[in-house]
Design goal:
Elements (H helix, E strand, L loop, with lengths): L27 H17 L13 H6 L11 H5 L14 H14 L3 H27 L2 H13 L4 H5 L4 H19 L10 H14 L8 H15 L9 H31 L11 H4 L7 H20 L22 H21 L4 H14 L20 H23 L1 H31 L4 H11 L4 H14 L2 H14 L4 H13 L3 H14 L8 H4 L2
Helix pairs in contact: 1-5, 1-6, 5-6, 5-8, 6-16, 6-17, 8-9, 8-10, 9-11, 10-11, 10-15, 13-14, 14-15, 15-16, 16-17, 18-19, 19-20, 20-21, 21-22
Length: 546
């Protein structure tokens, strides 16, 4: 008998084979209802934060920086760093600063105008979580679940409500838009320079000038191509692996590498450096790993990984600051925090191995998390902060996709068991709904109680992280403004007990001692602050005494 000829799978010309959503005809309500729901939820959970005042570093960037309010000084945005008159921090984010300048031109110095833009950006990122999830999962409700989880997660409060978190929001939106375009680019024999890829390069350029973690996009692009090549394996229009990778290298990756190198060159021309030298500009305060021993440098990243993932699962307690010494540097493998981080890493490896043997969707999500997280993990390079909730904003996208996939797999498995399994599936979905609702409630409460003003923010910081010198110092400034010198001295003393090298806190406590009538102690502290201050920070103590 003649052997039946095997039919090859048909490949879609618009997307990768099997990588896009089901293209069967749907009613308009099916298409738009999830989009409206995600946008409304993303905006709704932060609606009560719109009227809050400027917080934390907002004053430095928005009110005290003339470049973000004077259109005549827009050129200085491209020739200087992110922080006005602070040369020790090689941070270059001109696109973010330009958005503040545009905001001021439209709404003036009205906090609600700035925060409304942040909310719109967060809603846009949430919709991109849904759109990319739809491309990957080929099922609608897991993508909706992932997007809703992302939209309401309390860990995103710092990035969304504090206006200067816009750099994280805008970079994530540009980054995900570029990933989405890559997923929709024709896979079979792509043109040398398609309009979609031109859009990818524009988005990448903007992202690179918005925040530094956009340099990881090349890794994400490779991940997208590997995924789509796996999905189209065996089709005659898809080239063999070697030819495929060489073609993508020449037509896609090299232009991205060149664009990234160009952005680094522009950064160097503006700042005169690419990275902050160790020990300069208070690096040990912002990131204690700057002065840590080798053991601490190697093991503390596992502590940070465990803490980030624990907060993604159970987002409590959260804090606006984790500088020295909120998270002590690890001292050895006996540290239980290191073991927690290693356990999480083991879970990731197990999930990756299991996913490799199946549909590999979970593997793709884990890969995306690794690519976007490693740059902020303090394992490859030291960044400007040891730990911050805002830096997990983009990596948490992959976490939400993983949760959506896991929930889908659980419900499908329950449905295959029978009636009892369907009941278990309903319970699982109900539990997920309750969990997302609880996250949303926590976000709304924090908007009202923690992010309402600086006084509440700093008080919450001391409550959550009493071991942070900065939290103690900022709490003291609340009482300095109220003229309560004795309470201010108590908090400043606590801050200096944690970190005795902070010249600014010595200056503040010296001033408070003097105003409290303790002139000799005040002069002693001011003299020490003067001896510790350097460069453009040098000041005249007599000026502080009036």
């Amino acid at each position: 008998m003649a052997r039946a000829k095997r039919r090859r799978p048909r490949i879609e010309s618009r997307t990768s084979s099997g990588a896009g959503p089901d293209r069967t005809r749907r009613r308009p309500l099916d298409e738009w209802a999830p989009v409206v729901l995600i946008a409304v939820v993303a905006l709704g959970v932060y609606a009560n934060s719109v009227g809050n005042e400027f917080l934390y570093d907002d004053d430095l960037v928005i009110l005290d920086d003339p470049r973000t309010s004077d259109p005549g000084r827009w050129r200085e945005i491209f020739t200087h760093g992110y922080w006005y008159r602070r040369s020790t921090d090689p941070i270059y984010r001109p696109v973010a600063l330009l958005t503040y300048l545009a905001n001021h031109a439209i709404t003036g110095s009205w906090p609600a105008g700035y925060r409304a833009v942040n909310l719109a950006l967060h809603a846009g990122v949430s919709l991109m979580v849904y759109a990319i999830g739809l491309q990957l999962f080929r099922r609608r409700w897991p993508a909706v679940a992932a997007a809703l989880l992302f939209a309401v997660h309390p860990i995103h409060g710092e990035a969304v409500v504090i206006v200067v978190g816009r750099a994280d929001l805008l970079c994530a939106l540009l980054y995900l838009l570029a990933v989405w375009l890559l997923l929709r680019e024709p896979m079979a024999f792509p043109s040398p320079f398609s309009p979609r890829f031109a859009g990818v390069l524009v988005l990448l350029a903007l992202a690179l000038l918005t925040k530094e973690n956009a340099v990881t996009f090349i890794g994400a692009a490779v991940l997208v191509d590997l995924w789509r090549r796996w999905q189209g394996d065996g089709h005659p229009q898809i080239r063999p692996w070697r030819a495929f990778l060489l073609d993508r290298l020449a037509r896609r990756y090299l232009p991205m590498v060149g664009l990234t190198a160009l952005s680094l060159l522009v950064r160097y021309q503006a700042l005169g450096q690419l990275m902050r030298p160790r020990g300069i500009g208070g690096g040990g305060i912002e990131n204690p790993l700057d002065s840590a021993e080798v053991v601490g440098r190697l093991l503390t990243p596992f502590v940070l990984l465990g803490k980030y993932l624990n907060l993604l699962v159970w987002p409590h307690p959260l804090c606006y600051d984790y500088s020295y010494n909120a998270i002590p540097v690890a001292t050895g493998l006996a540290d239980h925090r290191v073991l927690i981080g290693l356990a999480w890493a083991a879970v990731f490896v197990i999930l990756a191995v299991v996913s490799w043997r199946r549909e590999r969707r979970m593997l793709w999500c884990l890969g995306f998390f690794a690519i976007t997280y490693l740059i902020v993990s303090n394992s490859l390079v030291l960044i400007g902060t040891l730990f911050a909730e805002r830096v997990i904003y983009l990596p948490s996208v992959a976490w939400c996709w993983c949760v959506g996939l896991a929930l889908t797999a659980l419900v499908d498995r329950c449905a295959s068991i029978g009636t009892g399994g369907r009941v278990l599936g309903i319970i699982a979905v109900a539990t997920a709904v309750v969990g997302v609702s609880a996250y949303a409630a926590e976000t709304v409460v924090r908007n009202a109680r923690v992010f309402c003003d600086n006084e509440a923010l700093y008080a919450d910081g001391v409550r959550v992280n009493p071991g942070s010198a900065r939290c103690q110092s900022f709490a003291a400034r609340r009482y300095i403004g109220q003229g309560d010198h004795k309470t201010a001295i108590k908090y400043l003393r606590a801050a200096l007990d944690i970190d005795d090298t902070a010249w600014y806190d010595h200056m503040l406590i010296g001033q408070e001692y003097a105003l409290d009538g303790q002139i000799d102690r005040g002069i002693e502290c001011l003299r020490r602050a003067y001896d510790m201050s350097t460069g453009h920070y040098r000041f005249d103590p007599a000026f502080l005494l009036g």
